[in-house]
Amino acid sequence: MEISAVKLIYFSPTQTSKTILEAIAGGMGIGAVSHIDLTPPDAATRDFGELTDEPAVIGVPVYGGRVPVDAKERLKRLKADKTPAVLVVLYGNRAFEDALLELKNLALEAGFIPVAGAAFIGEHSFSSAGMPIAEGRPDADDMAKAGDFGKAVIEKIRGLKQINDVPALQVPGDDPHRERNKPADISPSTDEDVCVLCGTCASVCPTEAVTVDEIVTTKGLECILCCACVKNCPTGARVMNAPPIMKIAEWLSTNFKERKEPDIFI
Ligand SMILES: Cc1cc2nc3c(=O)[nH]c(=O)nc-3n(C[C@H](O)[C@H](O)[C@H](O)COP(=O)(O)O)c2cc1C
Ligand code: SF4
Ligand code: SF4
Questions:
Q1: How confident is the model at residue 247 (pLDDT cuts 50, 70, 90)?
Q2: Would residue 225 count as lying in a domain?
Q3: Most informative mutation of 127, 190, 223 for ligand 3 (most atoms within 8 A of CB)
Q4: Ligand 2 pocket test: which of 203, 205, 217, 238 has the largest number of ligand atoms within 8 Å of its C-beta?
Q5: Mean pLDDT, residues 118-122
Q6: For the residues 97-123, what does the mean pLDDT come to?
Q7: Could you report the per-residue pLDDT of 70-93, keeping only the tens digit for each?
Q8: Under a CB-based contact definition with an 8 Å cutoff, are residues 10 and 17 in contact?
């Protein structure tokens, strides 16, 4: 199969999934790279048209061993027609459990044909200076591995006479998938003494949970705990200091120090 363009499709509040997808596309060596960013709230209603010939690289983070609910709902709105897809999950050095299998099932439902899969490691959304969890990842080594994966994928696709020749992709995970964590009324808080009301937290929030007016308010039940607002706040006013999350962050930081490496399925 001849390939002259590739589409990157991602839900990536803290950008690690997007970063790895770009490194994979770099390794594929294809000049024409376009993006469908499923992270902003308007992706819940935007019309994506039909995705046909060019292969897609689809990336999402792992939340509780699953594809995040908002990513799943937005992915369900894509329509493909036997379009080759490379499936990628990013996890915070604990485990990816059923997320890659769930992503594969979602891709099949949307009309994609999975040709390869991978699980890469990204800095955990709950990582902080005091409680680092996979801090700084993906790093140069991860980016090089993503590039090599992209090269292997493009060789595989180019070696196919037609897309129907691809054998069914095998990835780990259980189906039915593990239960999701229950939504809770928890969100980051804002230190009003430090906040300059710039609005960045509201603009990066994937679920429109944040409003910036005379103060910053957050609808806890709409917050998916992605920490995009925390990582993008220019003054450090926005912090994830809710006790249940601090407890989880401490557990992760203590018990998942050992570096995990990417898993490739091709
Ligand atoms: C609510 C939530 C749940 C998470 N669950 C997991 C998990 O089950 N396993 C894991 O290793 N990392 C987990 N993470 C960490 C993310 O998968 C990781 O930080 C990922 O790189 C974020 O991707 P992004 O930068 O594209 O948003 C979780 C993060 C959040 C916010
Ligand atoms: S991004 Fe930070 S400084 Fe800007 S409004 Fe939000 S909390 Fe305040
Ligand atoms: S308010 Fe919640 S959902 Fe919105 S960016 Fe912050 S952590 Fe993410």
A1: very high
A2: yes
A3: 223
A4: 238
A5: 98
A6: 98
A7: 999 999 999 999 999 999 999 999
A8: yes
> Do 141 and 219 lie in a common domain?
no
Whether residues 74 and 193 share a domain: the answer is no
Flag whether pLDDT at 2 surpasses 90.
no
Q: Phi-psi category of 259—alpha, beta or left, where left has phi over 0 and alpha has psi -120 to 50?
A: beta
- Domain containing 211 equals 189-249
Q: CB atoms < 10 A from the CB of 242, how many? A: 18
Does 52 map to a domain?
Answer: yes
Query: What rounded mean pLDDT belongs to the chain?
Result: 96
Q: What is the mean pLDDT of residues 127-154?
A: 97
Of 15-24, 116-125, 162-171, the range with the lowest mean pLDDT is 162-171
Q: Which residues line ligand 2 (CB under 6 A)?
A: 190, 195-201, 212, 216, 233-235, 237-238
What's the confidence (pLDDT) of residue 165? 86
Q: Which two tokens stand for residue 101?
A: 């299998």
Number of domains, the chain: 2
Ligand 3 and 226: CB distance under 6 A: yes
The residue nearest atom 4 of ligand 2, judged by CA position, is 198
pLDDT at 164 (0 to 100): 86
Q: What angle do CA 40, 43, 263 make, to 5 degrees?
A: 80
